[in-house]
Backbone:
DNA sequence: CCGCATCCCCCTGGATACTG
DNA sequence: CAGTATCCAGGGGGATGCGG
C-alpha cells in the first residue's frame, strides 16, 4: 500500500491523514523517537509496553510505505536498524501536537506528560 | 464507555485523543456539521456515503458518551434529532485542523477541499 | 424520521516459535 | 539484534429487517 489505503474515498484531509495513522501503535511509534527523530527496533519495542515484534514490524513497514518513516539497515554484526522520521513524518508529528494537547486536557484531565 | 476506553493505558495525549476518534466515521461526523456545529441524523447519513444507520447511530452514541457531541431530541411528529458539537467537540475539531492540512498536502497532494 | 436487533464476515492484532 | 512464520480470537462494521 503506497500513500493511503482508501484511494479516492476521503471526505476531507483529516480522514486521509487518519488512514495513515490508523493502527494501534502508530502514533506512539511516531512519538517515541521525539526530537531526536530516530530510534532502533529494540528501543521501540521496549518503549511500547505490550507490542509484539510481529505487529511492531508490520506497522513500521506500513509507515515506511506511507513515507513517514525511513528504514536504514546497517550491515553489521549484530544487526542494527535505525528508524528515522522523514521530513513528512516530522511534519505529521507537529500536526499531531494540538491533538495531543486536547487529549491531555479532555481525556487525561491535565495530567503532566510530554506533548 | 465514558471518556476514553483504555483507562491508564495511554503513552501520550495523542493516543488518548486517538481513542476517542477511533471509529471509521468519527472524524467525518465531527467534520460534516462544520462551522454551524449542528446537524440532523438524516443529514449526516446523506453526507456520509456508505455509512449504515446502525453504525452511524453507534458512533454518535460513543461520541456522545465521550462528551464531544450533544444529542437533542425534539418531541415532534415526524421525529427530529439534532446533533451538536459540544464546546469540547468544537475544540477537538480545531485541534484536528493541522492534521487535516497535513493530510491534504501529503496524501491528497494539495487538492482543494475544506480544512 | 430515527433508530434498534440480528446475523455474519473480515481484518487487526495478539501468542508463540523459529531464523539470519 | 531484528526480524519471519503460523495460528487464532475478538470485535468493528456491513447487510438486512422491524419498531415507535
Residues:
Amino acid at each position: 500500500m503506497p500513500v493511503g489505503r482508501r484511494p479516492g474515498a476521503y471526505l476531507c484531509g483529516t480522514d486521509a491523514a487518519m488512514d495513515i495513522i490508523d493502527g494501534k501503535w502508530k502514533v506512539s511509534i511516531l512519538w517515541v523517537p521525539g526530537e531526536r527523530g530516530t530510534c532502533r527496533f529494540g528501543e521501540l519495542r521496549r518503549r511500547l509496553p505490550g507490542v509484539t515484534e510481529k505487529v511492531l514490524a508490520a506497522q513500521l513497514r506500513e509507515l515506511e510505505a506511507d513515507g513517514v518513516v525511513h528504514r536504514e539497515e546497517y550491515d553489521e554484526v549484530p544487526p542494527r536498524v535505525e528508524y528515522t522520521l522523514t521530513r513528512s513524518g516530522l511534519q505529521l508529528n507537529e500536526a499531531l501536537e494540538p491533538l495531543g494537547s486536547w487529549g491531555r486536557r479532555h481525556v487525561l484531565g491535565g495530567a503532566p506528560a510530554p506533548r
